[in-house]
Amino acid sequence: MKNVKILGSGCKRCIATADMATAEAKKLGIDIELEKVTDFVDIAKFGIASTPGVVIDGKVVHAGGLPKPEDMAKWLAA
Amino acid sequence: MSHGLSTHPQRPTSPAAWIAATLAAVALWFALYAQLESVSAWLVAQLPIAPGSHIAEALRFFVYDMPKVLMLLTLVVFGMGVVRSFFSPERTRALLAGRREGVGNVAAAILGVFTPFCSCSAVPLFVGFVSAGVPLGVTFSFLIAAPMVNEVALGLLFALVGWKVAAIYLGFGLTIAIVSGWIIGRLHLEGWLEEWVRELRAGEADLPPDEQTIVDRIKAGLEAVRDIVGRVWLWIIVGIAAGAFIHGYVPNDLLASIMGKGQWWSVPAAVLLGVPMYSNAAGIIPVVEALLGKGAALGTVLAFMMSVIALSFPEMVILRKVLSLRLIAVFAGVVALGIVAVGYLFNALFS
């Protein structure tokens, strides 16, 4: 079970990123626990300056803008 | 709405094919752009409308100005999208962290133009900068420049009003961002931040290295076109319609007497009027063009435009989450004073 956190205050891109994580995980057959982090304090603690951010098992893998689906698959599979 | 950049082949395989397709599209763009005026004149001439009449002029405005503006915007946004793929807020922050004031303010304002920024992430950006050791004044220089001096504003000013005004806007926009940020830094207002922001000391995320290929960067440019042009085209049409209305129906003397050079109060009034107005560069610039045509003074109109774009009420509401009311008031006051100063300076220079 992988823990996936999507950091962002609920903007359109953040929602699209969360949906992408769910879809890619399903495609790969990986079980994930998806968590949306919307609080500004919690977002800032991860050390990013742009949203959406993606954190997988505690490690920041992406910040700012919609990630590419291929990249999402790569992060999830790693 | 035809523009050259939509002619990319669907799936070129190699980077060379992508580069060739991009160059071909840009060449096609220039070929189309050069023919635009004659094509639109021919189109209007085919219609059963008396040449020179009001409606012919209005039509010409739409069939020539609209494609012209959209084409220029597409090219500028594409170019900027490619350039921006080399920058990220995290990288900009690393460049600015611990930087001295002065040099830091200049760097922040310039990086503000090139760093991808959306107002929905203004708060994470602000907190991310301040908590990683970017001085408060330097952070403000970035936050003022990023929305005000952007490719949409510059591209549209260039297309509708001319390169001189666009260059002046760029110069003065950067100056206001640099000076306002520097003043806020000198005032040492760190104590006016919300407490949780002051106490937060976040490290920097250890992001994987940027491994974008040239194809990724071209795609980033196309994505920017899809996103930005897709979002602002409606604003431009509304703006051009408002501009056309001003062109046709607002009496010359009325505007010249309110927004002309004679009235000392017109510049501050324009700034005050701009704060509650919520528009972006795309909607306001066609109006600017029409106001100028009606004899409004350049400084007054630019002050109005800067105020509408840089001092937006919704953005201040968002920033309230991290700044105290006093700090927001200082921020708005300093920027407003800067804009008023630019307005007066302009009216004095171009009289």
Architecture blueprint of SSEs:
The complex is a heterodimer of chains A (78) and B (351).
Chain A: E1 2-7, H1 12-28, E2 32-37, H2 40-45, E3 53-56, E4 59-63, H3 69-77
Parallel strand pairs in A: 1-2
Antiparallel strand pairs in A: 1-3, 3-4
Chain B: H1 15-46, H2 54-84, H3 89-96, H4 103-114, H5 122-131, H6 136-148, H7 151-160, H8 163-186, H9 195-199, H10 214-249, H11 252-259, H12 266-274, H13 281-293, H14 298-310, H15 313-319, H16 325-349
Helix pairs in contact in B: 1-2, 2-7, 2-10, 4-6, 4-8, 5-6, 6-8, 7-8, 7-13, 8-16, 10-13, 12-14, 12-16, 13-14, 14-16
Describe the structure in your own words.
The complex is a heterodimer of chains A (78) and B (351). With 78 residues, chain A is of the alpha+beta class. Chain A is 41% helix and 27% strand. Chain A is globular. The two termini of chain A are 13 Å apart. Chain B has helices at 15-46, 54-84, 89-96, 103-114, 122-131, 136-148, 151-160, 163-186, 195-199, 214-249, 252-259, 266-274, 281-293, 298-310, 313-319, 325-349. Helices cover 73% and strands 0% of the residues of chain B. In chain B, helix 13 runs antiparallel to helix 14 (298-310). Chain B has 16 helices and no strands. Chain B has two domains: 13-84 and 215-246, no CATH class; 89-202 and 250-349, no CATH class. At the A-B interface, helix 2 and strand 4 of A face helix 3 and helix 5 of B.
Question: Can you tag this structure with a few keywords?
Answer:
heterodimer, A: 78 residues, alpha+beta, Glutaredoxin, four-stranded mixed beta sheet, 3 helices, 4 strands, 41% helix, B: 351 residues, mainly alpha, 2 domains, flat, disordered N terminus
